[in-house]
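Minimal example, chain plus FE2/S2 (inorganic) cluster.
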Amino acid sequence: MTDRKVGLEHGLTNYGDRDFSLYLRRSFARSMGYSAEMLARPVVGIAYTPSGFNNCHRHFPELLEAVKRGVLASGGLPLAFPTISLGEVFLSPTSLKFRNLMSIDTEEMIRAQPMDAVVLMGGCDKTVPAQLMGAVSAGKPAIGLVAGPMMIGRHRGEWLGACTDCRRFWARYRAGDIDAKEISAVEDRLAVTAGTCAVMGTASTMACLAEALGMILPGTAAIPAVHADRLRAAEATGAVAVRLIGSNLTPNRIVNEKSVENALRVLMALGGSTNAVIHLTAIAGRAGVELTLKRLNELSDTTPVLVNLKPVGNHYMEDFFAAGGMGAVLRELSPLLHLDCVTITGESLGERLASDSDPWVDRSIIAALKEPLERAGGLVALHGNIAPKGAILKRSAADAKLFEHEGRAVVFSSLADLAGRIDDPALDVDPADILVLQNAGPHSPDAMPEAGYLPIPKKLASKGIKDMIRVSDARMSGTAFGTIVLHVTPDAASGGPLGLVRTGDRIKLSVKNRRIDLKVEDAELKRRAAAEKAPAAKPNRGYGKLYAEEILGADEGCDFAFLRPRIGKA
Ligand code: FES
């Protein structure tokens, strides 16, 4: 006999009479047509995030049915509940601004509603990090189920995958290579099914990192959204959620220093999204684990790139799945991983890999550890007098010819300034210059949009220039590419030195030395700092006020200060 609470008995609404509260709750639950037998079962909540503003989640109704099937067959009662959803391209100024709001929503609803375990259904870029952050903080048994990637589209014999090919074709359109009719045809064919972007962008990177952390079922990160295997994965996820009930296998235990390191290794091997550094830092931070850029560089230098997917390579997520997916990547990386990390099934990562029944791998897409695509990882952190708290460069998506380069800064003071002048035929710019964007970081009113992929000025693009060094405090879409220094921290809007750069200054990038420096005397920088205008007034109400007051820098995952536990040095 146990007095452990089950299902609807959890967290009663307070009417001052516990028995009355339970009686009332059961009565209202019965009004939904459930039998007494069903209402006596343990409850698996399902954080459910379809939205008319989220194309990536449009198959969620079918997936939900499969999750429920798994829960019911295993003796639980599945109860779906909505949280906000973040459809990447439908949010202004940027979805990152609302990631923390979604994490708060997820955490509070997991905690406030009567459930014994929870399935987190997410997929589009910020949804998976938001759900993991919320679940780590909530501390209840939880398992993720990701949307899975879109299938590729086709255009005049070419494959199209959102959104690397979106950018490729847009660049061709800007350069005058293709006309308005063709770009309109491409618009129709870029995103042709439900699911997340078809390349190793942020959504797919985060799905793979969720698997590396142990928070979703083995082998499920890369299953295409519309594949029957995804429905089977959903059913299995529901079943495992029931098995988690009563266990101490909570996300705050699964996410720990070792599993975060495993995820970082996987990020490097994938040549994954720069955004993942921010998200992983935030997820780890919720578990009290600090992810330092120094450690990132150590792991990057000792983890080869193994995966040949766009935007860095040639293939798409559906190819990755068919090539062996995350199981194959983890197997290759296993000598470098902490194999004792526990995963959501209760198995250790090592046990998972040992029990892998199909070790087949397509080497054209997933390279062997001994014969990698690149000897060192895809991302590198830089420091320097422009970025005292760091910056990120995706070296695997950059032009190595620009890695050791000094050039003249051409500065845009804001996104509006960039939009107003980048294509001005009178813009004084040369291919050897370094484009600098200020005031697009987390503390800016634009809340760190994916604007770090500054377009090549039209006058240079039309002459065939495809890449230049670009430096900003913004982010970059995981599907983009170029020699782009991002996440410069502290950002300009919080008083960082990036805001002191002026057109004509010299900037030196040295990837070899992990440096990015402004060649301007300290005294001159002090003079510029003293002459800076007072920052614009902050929002005085609502979520905008909370965001402006609590947002942390990229080095702390752009989380809110009050959501992070005190973090010890890792
Ligand atoms: Fe949702 Fe790309 S728009 S993952």
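The longest strand covers residues 404-412. Residues 56, 88-89, 124-125, 162, 196-197, 201, 203 surround FE2/S2 (inorganic) cluster (CB under 6 Å).
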